[in-house]
Amino acid sequence: MAVLLNPAETIRFSPDWEQSRDAAARRVYILKAPTVWGRVAFKRALAARGARRHAALTMLDALERSVRAAYGEALTDPGRATLETIGELRAELVAFRARLVGEGYDMATEEGRADFVATVERQTALNEALIGVSDVVAAADPRYARLLADNEVYSLVAALEGARLFVVGWERGPGPFRRDPDGVPDDVLAAIPSADLAALGVEIDRLLQPTEDESKNSASPSPSGSAPKGSTAARSTTGTTRSRGTRGRSRRSAGTTSESIPST
Q1: For labelling alongside 230, which of 18, 43, 69, 173 has CA 20 to 30 A away?
Q2: Domain co-membership, 167 together with 47
Q3: CA geometry: angle at 255 spanning 53 and 249, to 5°?
């Protein structure tokens, strides 16, 4: 059985944009490493909030059903063109998932990085072509609108619940810090800037899904016990970079990007 991150140690985390500050002025969030039961508590908290994240392929299937229902059997443009784009994106996502669980992307080589970037760019272009259609469908189909709304708020709910459970302190933080038996209370969470909260959400997601190397190395943790300084990168199941956090900005999406592929 793999040993996960050492729960006896804390992790110091600063968002990327804090790295330009002197260490003495840098805001630092102090996190506890998730235990097995901490992961269970996090999942339970999300379930209690009704938070759900639908996989990209689920969203594509729902979008396709709505488009077919709107245009009927006699498909003409733009319905036909939309279905072709959905088919292309579905094929890209299936191939991407197969690659992730197979050979992965060798991010240590220029060729591997270029291949990964090209894949993401193809998916992004296809996804952007569907955004307008997705908005129209959401306005007309309440079932699809609910799926889209679930995905839109999931990251915020996960970030808030993750911070509530795993933040145990801060240095030069946004206000006085305290915890109660249920974790960080709402009024303290409300003081965290939205950009910081988004970065915390990505970092906590990374801690909840340690890479194979992190799992192996956790038996002999580093002297500092900290995550890579300022890292806001979410990792794929192969340990390669999947997406990069932004300063609290939501990326406009039809809900069909590869970020949710691991949950298909």
Answers
A1: 43
A2: yes
A3: 90
Across the strands, what pairs with 29? Answer: 13, 170
pLDDT tens digits, 114-142: 999 999 999 999 989 898 889 888 998 99
Last residue of a domain, one of 122, 150, 178: 150
User: For residue 28, what are the contacts with CB-CB under 8 A and spacing of at least 6?
Assistant: 12, 13, 14, 18, 170, 171, 172
Residue 52, token pair as written in the block: 């759900």
Q: Which residue from 138, 171, 204, 240 is spatially nearest to 5, judged by alpha carbons?
A: 204
Tens digit of pLDDT for each residue in 209-226? Answer: 865 554 444 443 333 333
Q: What is the 3-state secondary structure (H, E, C) of 127-190?
A: HHHHHHHHHHHHHHCHHHHHHHHHHHHHHHHHHHHHHHHHEEEEECCCCCCCCECCECCHHHHC
For tokens 């090209």, the residue is: 118
Are 85 and 209 contained in the same domain? no
226: which 2 tokens? 């900290």
Quick one: DSSP state of residue 24?
G
The dihedral sign for the CA sequence 97, 100, 101, 102: positive
Spatial contact of 208 and 158, defined as CB atoms under 8 Å apart:
no
